[in-house]
UniProtKB/TrEMBL annotation:
Keyword Oxidoreductase: yes
Listed PANTHER family: PHYTANOYL-COA DIOXYGENASE, PHYTANOYL-COA DIOXYGENASE DOMAIN CONTAINING 1
The UniProt record lists the keyword Oxidoreductase: yes
One Pfam entry name: PhyH
UniProt cross-references to InterPro entries, sorted A to Z: Phytyl_CoA_dOase-like
Name this protein carries in UniProt: Phytanoyl-CoA dioxygenase
Keywords on record: Dioxygenase, Oxidoreductase, Plasmid
GO terms, molecular function: 2-oxoglutarate-dependent dioxygenase activity; iron ion binding
Region spans: Disordered: 151-173
Organism encoding this protein: Cupriavidus neocaledonicus
């Protein structure tokens, strides 16, 4: 691992690893993706349901857990993240599937995954694996270094007119900034970065970084993306708000029973998460 990659992930919150997966590994990932689309889990849902911007998302499908655990162990992510983080151990959390098709699905609203999951620490990362060559204009965008700043409330992802509509509500966390509106008024309002990618490239993203985008259009009508999430030694449990308008528990909505005994600051560990290193 080049030291510049470690520095970029630690300071910026994201880094692109070009050619991370070979053709055989990418094919295994695509098989897992296609199976998940054909066999959705209980957490499958649509963003902006009922609008032309609708897109499909699935998260931690329990029916796919066995095959995804095996896939995580077969891919080079254990050594990759150990090297990237300087962590002795690496665990696999779960997958997320994104399908945007037909050239209409809009950009995903800006958000932090830590608004939805009880995560804190340096050793968390999402591995974004897209199966198309993604142009820069259609790529995921991040606000550089935002994982080191404020933890915001989440977006409901259901109001196209207000992408900052609060998920939890109350005053536990600050409301999301309207980044798109602010950057239209001032293109330099945020330090935003993104990358064009080719099949086999993997974007590594800290879940605390503000990120969004990835729209499709007439020239790039379809995007299929498998996200695999990992954590290491410096990963701790950081509960969500006690009272959530969205019905979230302090442990979120994934693996709630398995995480129920953890307290704020405890190492993020549970026997349900496959250790791959």
């Amino acid at each position: 691992m080049d030291q510049s990659k470690r520095k970029a992930f630690a300071e910026d919150g994201a880094v692109l690893i070009e050619g991370c997966l070979n053709a055989e590994q990418l094919a295994l990932c695509r098989q897992a993706f296609d199976w998940g689309i054909e066999n959705p889990g209980p957490n499958a849902h649509s963003l902006f349901d009922g609008s032309v911007q609708k897109s499909h998302v699935d998260n931690a499908n329990p029916f796919a857990k066995g095959r995804l655990d095996e896939l995580a162990a077969a891919l080079p992510f254990g050594r990759l993240f150990a090297d990237l983080w300087g962590s002795e151990h690496v665990w696999y959390f779960a997958e997320e599937l994104f399908l945007k098709a037909g050239g209409n699905a809009g950009r995903s609203p800006w958000h932090q995954d830590t608004s939805y999951l009880p995560w804190a620490g340096k050793h968390f990362a999402n591995a974004w694996i897209s199966f198309e060559a993604v142009p820069k204009r259609n790529a995921l965008e991040i606000v550089r270094g935002s994982h080191l700043g404020t933890r915001h409330d989440g977006s409901t992802f259901q109001n196209p007119d207000d992408p900052t509509e609060p998920l939890h509500g109350g005053d536990a966390w600050p409301r999301l900034p309207n980044i798109e509106a602010e950057r239209r008024a001032n293109p330099d309002a945020y330090d935003i970065v993104s990358w064009a990618t080719r099949p086999g490239d993997v974007l590594l993203l800290h879940p605390g970084v503000l990120h969004g985008g990835g729209a499709v259009d007439a020239d790039f009508p379809d995007r299929h993306t498998l996200v695999m999430r990992f954590f290491g030694d410096d990963a701790v449990f950081s509960p969500l708000p006690e009272h959530s308008d969205a019905g979230f528990t302090p442990a979120g909505v994934l693996f709630v029973e398995e995480l129920a005994s953890l307290k704020a600051g405890d190492p993020f560990r549970a026997s349900c998460f496959r250790q791959i290193l």
